[in-house]
TrEMBL record, chain A:
It comes from Prauserella rugosa. PANTHER family: AMINO ACID IMPORT ATP-BINDING PROTEIN (PTHR43166), GLUTAMATE_ASPARTATE IMPORT ATP-BINDING PROTEIN GLTL (PTHR43166:SF9). Coiled coil: none annotated. This is Amino acid ABC transporter ATP-binding protein, PAAT family (TC 3.A.1.3.-). InterPro entries: AAA+_ATPase, ABC_ATPase_HisP-typ, ABC_transporter-like_ATP-bd, ABC_transporter-like_CS, Ectoine_EhuA, MetN_ABC_transporter-like, P-loop_NTPase. The keyword Transport applies. PROSITE patterns: ABC_TRANSPORTER_1 (PS00211), ABC_TRANSPORTER_2 (PS50893). SMART domains: AAA. Keywords: Amino-acid transport, ATP-binding, Cell membrane, Membrane, Nucleotide-binding, Transport. SUPFAM superfamilies: P-loop containing nucleoside triphosphate hydrolases. It is a peripheral membrane protein. Pfam families: ABC_tran. GO terms for molecular function: ABC-type amino acid transporter activity; ATP binding; ATP hydrolysis activity. It is found in: Cell membrane.
TrEMBL record, chain B:
PANTHER family: L-CYSTINE TRANSPORT SYSTEM PERMEASE PROTEIN TCYL, MEMBRANE COMPONENT OF AMINO ACID ABC TRANSPORTER. The lineage of its organism: Bacteria, Bacillati, Actinomycetota, Actinomycetes, Pseudonocardiales. Belongs to the binding-protein-dependent transport system permease family. InterPro entries: AA_ABC_transptr_permease_3TM, ArtM/GltK/GlnP/TcyL/YhdX-like, Ectoine_EhuD, MetI-like, MetI-like_sf. Its main location: membrane. It is found in: Cell membrane. This is Amino acid ABC transporter membrane protein 2, PAAT family (TC 3.A.1.3.-). Residues 17-209 form the ABC transmembrane type-1 domain. GO terms for biological process: amino acid transport.
Amino acid sequence: MTGEDFITFEGVHKAFGKNVVLDDLSFSVASGERVTLIGPSGSGKTTILRMLMTLTRPDRGTIGVDGDYLYHEKRGDELVPASEAHIRKVRQRITMVFQHFNLFPNMKVLRNVTEAPIHVLGKSKDEAEERGKELLEMVGLGDKLGAHPSQLSGGQQQRVAIARALAVDPDVLLLDEVTSALDPEIAAEVLDVLRDIARSTDTTMLLVTHAMKFARDVSHRVLMFNEGKIIEDGTPEKLFNEPEEERTQDFLRSVIDET
Amino acid sequence: MNEMFEWSRVWDAMPTMLDGLVVALQATLIGYVIALVLGLLFALLRRSNNRWVSMPVGFVVEFIRSTPLLVQLFFFFYVLPLIGISVSPLATGAFALGLHYATYTSEVYRSGIDGVPPGQWEAARALNFSRRRTWTAVILPQAIPRVVPALANYVIAMFKDTPQLLAITVVEMLGAAVAIGSETFRYSEPVAAAGLVYLVVALVMAWLARIVERRYGQVRV
């Protein structure tokens, strides 16, 4: 697989009853690319992230990551549904940061960050803790290693969540409205952290966000979704300044830009 | 006969009551451990994605929950020897008691597990935790403290059900009281003695339960 097609969606269709959320969707993301998905709620953008994270499955179509299909395996010339082991293997390259943080409340901050490296990646406790401390320092929480998640503010919890996600060395980082549950001031701190990360790594990122300025700053590409289809696809400059589609223009006009 | 209730006879009966109490406590404790362990197993199996596992287990659990303990006691007492399992009536009774209450504790565990926010499952998936690690590191440590009060209360309920073991020849406190009564033809005093001991022990259990709740009923880090 070339770098161009690092993530591929081919003919992906998802409906809940009569409600079509993704309508025979096809697109691809290059390795190291940062793509922001925008559009009204219900337009399918979060579903894209959730499918990549295997939180929900497509009804039809294939999803590819770094040369492998996520939900299918190649058996000779045929594609068959993937085994649980195969899905886990591909899923290893992907991780997600959630709108509501989802830190583990029964673990202190450091353990939240080291649990996956130790028990999924097989790193030693020392290795994992060293890297964990590094990452927590980087997000500005080096002094909170022994804190409980419940003692942290929302912005702090989200920064821990970001450190936790980076600790598994993902090839693909999914960011699902990561500042939507935060006050604008706090959101700005988190976005600053993400901006630094974006600039210093070449992790492929898919973002769903309403923070348009941030999207403009870090994205290579912006996809405008509407009713389960991509109606516009371009650079941030193009999409934000000269949107072609009327629906895109309407949407951008209505979005309150936080940061 | 119009005899006065004699308190001295109540105290006279106490030593025998204590022997019966030991039997009742043995049945309760063994049964409770079975109920805790088996109940969790039932709760987990009922969540299995495999229909061949979840449906039979669900059916068995509902069946046991919906039939009287006394019937189950008789069933195991008469059926187990037929299939070559030869154990004491006390063991049979403790097992039946535990199995019966496992169906209640499994409901309690289920509600605890359902109470863990979906975001926790999603975060575990995002980090690619194995199913086992998701359960042991994330879900159960949050589910179980939530339901410790309900689980703790069941030990008291089980203790109060131990007189039913009388039906399968286990002489616990009520049995001992009735035995005294059948010799002296005065039942009210020994039964009162049994009642007093049940009361005191149940109160002590309730007190211990509150201590356990305070210690283990919070999601600890």
